[in-house]
Amino acid sequence: MIKELDLLDKKILYELDINSRQPLTVLSKKVGKSRNVIEYRIKKLQEKGIIQGFVTLLDAGKLGLTVWNVYLEFQNLDSKKEKEIINYLKNNSKIWWVGLTTGKWNLIYSIFVKNIKEFYNTVTDFNSKFGNYILNQSLAAHVDVEVISRGYFLNKPGLSVEWYKEFKSISLDEVDKKILKELATNARISSIELAKKLNLSPRIISYRIKELLKKEVITRFRLQLNVKKFNYGFYKIIIYLKTISKDYDIQLKEYCRQLGNIVHYEKKIGPWMLELELDSESYEKVNELMKVMKEKFPEYIKSYEIMLVYDEPKGELDLTQQL
Question: Could you list the residue range(s) of the whole structural domain that residue 186 is in?
Answer without folding.
Answer: 173-214
